[in-house]
Amino acid sequence: MGRLLLAPMEGLVDDVLRDVLTRVGGYDLAVSEFVRVSGNLLPSRAFRRLCPELDNGSRTRAGTPLVVQLLGSDPGCLAENAAQLVELAPAGIDLNFGCPAPTVNRHGGGAMLLADPEQLLRIVAAVRRVVPQEIPFTAKMRLGVRDTEKTLDCARALAAGGIVALVVHARTRADGYRPPAHWEWIARIRAVVPQPVIANGEVWTVADHLRCCAVSGSDDVMIGRGAVADPFLARRIRAQEAGEAVAADRCDDWRRLQPLLASYWQQVCAKVVARHAPGRLKLWLGSLRRNFVEADALFMAVRALAGVEEISRVLELHGIPVQRPLG
Question: How far apart are CA 157 and CA 153, in angstroms?
Fold first, then answer.
């Protein structure tokens, strides 16, 4: 039985949603949103603010280990910040070479670094020198910037730099999030690096997971948008692997999700200013619509609302047990 990892998703899966998704269960570890490193040494509070799990043994409240991801392009600066992070005893440190966001790529970070395998090696080697062997040190990459010409060279560079595992999002930066994910490339990467390779991209269902493992040859899979759209996906995959029946009817799952939605809303309202909380809820409901008709109805009911109290009233009408007072 392979590992299941909860993917880092900037602006979507923060500590609150990580808490909810890992409470549902099925994940072996989670990876944080990236901590941007750009020319200065971050204070410890910067890591703790993005990853409050660091104050809980680097685990979510459900006990899922949290790997902290760093994003940057300067080897020395990344190494200096990784050394600072080591003092907080993370469950792992990951380097981001896969983010396709223009704001990141404009400064030469994320997936744009895949144009220069030698720079990848310099970065990874510099960080490797400051990360103790007992802390897992990994990286995540895409297949390239615009094409796959340097894919294998990039994978070899990351492996040579000293990572212990590699996550591969099986699309180029230019592909963005458009299907398909090219899982066959993960098999090619596995053939040229000795470290474990974890497959990522377009896993939305139990059947997708089976195909991804078969095509990529990897037993370990990282799930991103599919996990947000179906909080029970990891558990359903585990059930299938155990030979149990996987129900097509999602009514029971929706009933289990209702108190988790209430917890999410409560935590979001406590974390962000009131005017931002509705947008966070709508973003998650928009993903849940893919699998739950009840989520679609709830999304339509709150779509035009902007106030915390009026949204709370609608949630209660839809069976979401909101606790009061909020915040």
Answer: 6
Q: Are 69 and 33 contacting, i.e. CB atoms less than 8 angstroms apart? A: yes
Q: What is the 3-state secondary structure (H, E, C) of 18-49?
A: HHHHHHHCCCCEEEEEEEECCCCCCCHHHHHH
Predicted confidence (pLDDT) per residue in 201-228, tens digit: 999 999 999 999 999 999 999 999 999 9
pLDDT (0 to 100) of residue 324: 62
> Catalytic residue positions?
99
CA 258 to CA 279: how far, in whole Å? 18
Residue type, 177: Y
The string of DSSP letters for 300-313 reads HHHTT---HHHHHH
Nearest to 262 by CA among 53, 61, 12, 19: 19
- Whole-number Å distance between alpha carbons of 114 and 155: 9
Q: Which residues pair with 71 in a beta bridge?
A: 36
Cα–Cα distance, 139 to 198 (Å, whole number): 10
Helix (H, G, I), strand (E, B) or coil at 197: strand
What pTM was estimated for this model as a whole? 0.95
Rounded Cα distance between 188 and 168, Å, is 11
